[in-house]
Amino acid sequence: MEVQLDGDGVFLRGEERTPDMYSSIDAVVEKLESQVKRFKGKLLLRPREGAETIGDEDGPDDSAGGADEDEEPVPAVVRTKRFGVKPMSAEEAAMQMELLNHDFFVFQSGESGQVNVVYRRRDGNYGLIEPEV
Questions:
Q1: CA 72, CA 108: separation in Å to the nearest integer?
Q2: 20 to 30 A Cα–Cα from 23, which one of 45, 115, 117, 124?
Q3: What is the mean pLDDT, run by run of 10 residues, along the chain of 133 residues?
């Protein structure tokens, strides 16, 4: 079972394989629900321009917008890495990715000039992400 949801700038994807179709559906729904909860938590934690902060008058609310104690913590960006991108082909980028022993590689397409991503798929092949123009 594979489900992809795209709406209002949010893309959610879930995939599950079991011998029983109904078990697969239940597992995918659970994955999508957890993604929605994580995304909703990020929205609640992100301050909007000109908006008042959510919380008590005494101070900010540590419960991430009233989230339950047993919910997953919302992941945070803990590192930023900057690097120059240079024009190259997807094959060249895949070779660079292998040399660096990474699972993905960001590069500028020599053909379109757009920023692309090449990545290693679970089946051992490569995938290419190209932005739509």
A1: 36
A2: 124
A3: 77 86 90 80 58 46 50 78 86 88 90 92 93 83
CA distance 26 to 16: 9
Determine the pLDDT at residue 13: 82
Measured CA to CA, the distance from residue 40 to residue 46 in angstroms comes to 10
Range of the domain at 94: 87-129
Query: The domain spanning residue 101 has which CATH number?
Result: 3.30.505.50
Per-residue pLDDT, 129? 95
Same domain? 48 vs 110: no
Strand 87-88 to strand 104-109: parallel, antiparallel, or no bridges (unpaired)?
A: parallel
Token digits for 80?
Answer: 């930023």
Cβ(119)–Cβ(96) under 8 Å?
Answer: no
Burial tier of 46 (Cβ tally within 10 Å: 0-12, 13-18, 19+): exposed
